[in-house]
Amino acid sequence: FVKTELKKENINTKWVIDDARPTTFKIRYMVGAQKILRVSRLKEHHLDKKMEQDVIESLNFLAQGIDGIVVSDFGYGVITPKILEHILFLGKKYKIKLFGDVQSSSQIGNVCKLNGYYCLTPTEKEVRIALNDKYSGLELLGTNLLKKTNSQNIVLTLGADGFITFAKSLKDDFIKTQHFPAINPNPIDIVGAGDALLTSLAVSTCAGANLMEASVIGAVLAGIAISKMGNIPVKLDELKRELDNYFIFNEKLASVGT
Fold first, then answer.
1. Which residues contact 198 (CB under 8 A, 6 or more apart)?
2. Residue 147: how many other CB atoms lie within 10 Å
3. CB of 47 closer than 8 Å to CB of 81
4. 118 and 152 in contact (C-beta within 8 Å)?
5. Which of 46, 162, 184, 255 could form a disulfide with 223 if both were Cys (CB 3.0 to 4.6 A apart)?
6. What's the pLDDT tens digit per position in 233-242?
């Protein structure tokens, strides 16, 4: 099913099949738009040495022709320490932008293991877990994570409150912050919002956008994603249409303000 769907979208793939674990299965039980229960069936163990090497060889093959690598680690064992180390090596060797996220909802993860990335997109909860910091304000939280992970940018996601970007200057230690409110204040289903933001940031910046431009695109894309029930892919035409509406609205707002 996955192969067929990706082929329909003209997405090139390289498959590494693990016979030692079933396909991860997650089902959510809903009452209207409210999720009341999630049941998951999965295996949590590191890849064996052969499969780990297969992944590394695939990365070696792909690395010379790409602009970015997105690491989305759900903590189920695919992203091993050796694979992470090799991704960092390839990033430096071929000047590839690295983007990352580590899930820490029902599983255990630590975003601090992603070191030296162009951009990380953790939630507030994930940062507090990683830094063991329950009380600091958001600005200090993001700044400390930026320093701890030696990353160039942090996008700290805040659920219904949108997200805050933390951008490190390449010339000095100055850190620029910017809050982006949620575009869609009435979500139908928040599943996939973080993934939509992460991938749109990656694609946009690799295409030449700066962090602020990519963040606007990411905010709009995430707003579309949470307007649908289920983790439904967002089409390019949808994004273009919503971007047009977004800028028309802000132009009208600006004219009223003046």
1. 70, 72, 99, 101, 121
2. 13
3. no
4. yes
5. 184
6. 888 899 999 9
